[in-house]
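Suppose a colleague, Dr. K., hands you the sequence of a protein chain of 489 amino acids and asks what its three-dimensional shape might be. Before reaching for any lab equipment, you can write down a predicted structure in token form. Begin with the sequence itself:
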Amino acid sequence: MEQNLNEILKLRREKLANLQNAGKDPFVITKFDQTHHSVEIKENYDELEGKTVSVAGRMMFKRVMGKASFCNIQDLKGSIQAYVARDVIGVDSYTDFKKYDVGDIIGITGEVFKTKTGEISVHAASVTLLSKSLQILPEKYHGLTDTDTRYRQRYTDLIMNAEVKDTFVKRSKIISTIRRFLDEQGFMEVETPMLVQNAGGAAARPFETHFNALDEDLKLRISLELYLKRLIVGGLERVYEIGRVFRNEGLDTRHNPEFTLMELYQAYTDYHGMMDLTEAMYRRVAQEVNGSMQVPYGEHVIDFEKPFERITMVDAVKKYANVDWNEVKDTAQAREIADKLHVEYEDRHQKGDILSLIFEEYVEEHLIQPTFVMDHPIEISPLTKKKPDNPEYVERFEMFINGWEMANAYSELNDPIDQRERFKAQEAMLAAGDEEANTTDEDFLNALEIGMPPTGGIGYGIDRLVMIMTNSPAIRDVLLFPTMKTLDK
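The predicted structure, expressed as tokens, is then:
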């Protein structure tokens, strides 16, 4: 098999050399005037029948039958059949065409017609080889199925698997829909630094690097939050950014070390305003991308039409773990409950941390339909306003779908004195061994001292949103180029 493959690859290079020696080098061609895509021709056949079109794409199939042949051209939108006859394109061109390989990129100009079997096709008047494929595509009927190879060679995956291309077309549409929605709501899109001195705004380990010009160590951002809040201080009342963030964490079906995050901040609102905005945005995305607010995912159908459930973390733990956290007096009692529930915790974890751990263990898996889980303990929310009536908790929610955290939102903390104390607590956690704790950001504190209005903020993981909207089981299925371990050479 290996020998046969080598012979095939050698033959392809020989074909290229022969073309070049004959003055027909495809790689010197700089353009081809493509007038239509395959789907456009099929959808508008009544208007285009008998008219001349030019299509271009990858030849995925060829059947030579003496003086006439059929081939199939795959382009961005789909594929279309072409009928190639020697008496029409000429003997020399037809001789060349018969030597073309599946995988070659060709341009065809000709009239639109239907074959005897009723298939809409292009009757070629000319065929132009635009690029010679020197590799072979996976075998037609089995396609490219090995997931590791699919992720490493996404270009081949896109060629061989139409549903993969559809996923990434939908991904682009999801992002453009979000942009349009937020633009209509008066938000301004901005850009903030990726290389930062202080990687704050989330609980995550940063990647570290060194900037030679300044001889200074820097980090890749883990969040967009602290810079966007600076802009709220500056008077830009509604801002958002869609950008890459980087977290030095493990790989699994829902995590990739670099991923796309959308964060927005709106002055003069709170976390309830963020819930309303989120419901409206998710409904808009579902309708525009899938044409329905009922979206299948795995064995479930996610219903974005009915009001999203809103429940506090304390009530959720009571509902699913049968623990009334309002009766828990201190950290010692919280640890006793965790021991009974077989929930693991660390020495540094306080009462609120343990509530969150129990929630993760007993509640998350039940939150299939869109659910806002509100009012988190202050220990796990260093950038959030306290609830005025109960300062052990903060005005924060996370949205869950299919048991996954999909969004994280706050009534943003704008008290610089309180914020400094929260940073001190984070520093203590860092010293105690929590590598995901924040460090004090003096410039951000200075911005808060200038004055930030009451503000609502939220972060959405775009990749998980795309997973839900495209029924994709793993985050790597919605990343064009996921992080992969380097293959041994």
